[in-house]
């Protein structure tokens, strides 16, 4: 079992940051997913989530600004493994222009009404519907705690 950590950023509109993956990753190629990835040896999930977000987008968040959404077991058919996803969220005062895409085709804020219709990765198909419309999603979109300078 491999452990992953991922982040959902929520803007003032309640839109969520998702990554459109390209054809290169072994897991979930050509799918929409969260920003995140494997934990490094000995790394705790919260620190790993913040690190992965910064590596993929240049958006730096303090682990203290991330809130645990859920921990999900995810089966990845591409590798035949049953893995564990630690999913975190934070509210931000950012736009697509503030996001640098270092992985995949694009990383953009997506309207939550349209997100379920995207071709989602296994982890996003499990984690996103539970999060969208939840009290946590609503609270993060209403009270953006910090502004990150691009």
TrEMBL record:
The keyword Hydrolase applies. The keyword ATP-binding does not apply. Its cofactor is Mg(2+). Residues 1-132 form the Nudix hydrolase domain. GO terms for molecular function: hydrolase activity. Keywords: Hydrolase. Signal peptide: none annotated. Pfam families: NUDIX (PF00293). PROSITE patterns: NUDIX. PANTHER family: GDP-MANNOSE MANNOSYL HYDROLASE, MUTT_NUDIX FAMILY PROTEIN. This is 8-oxo-dGTP pyrophosphatase MutT (NUDIX family). It comes from Nocardioides albus.
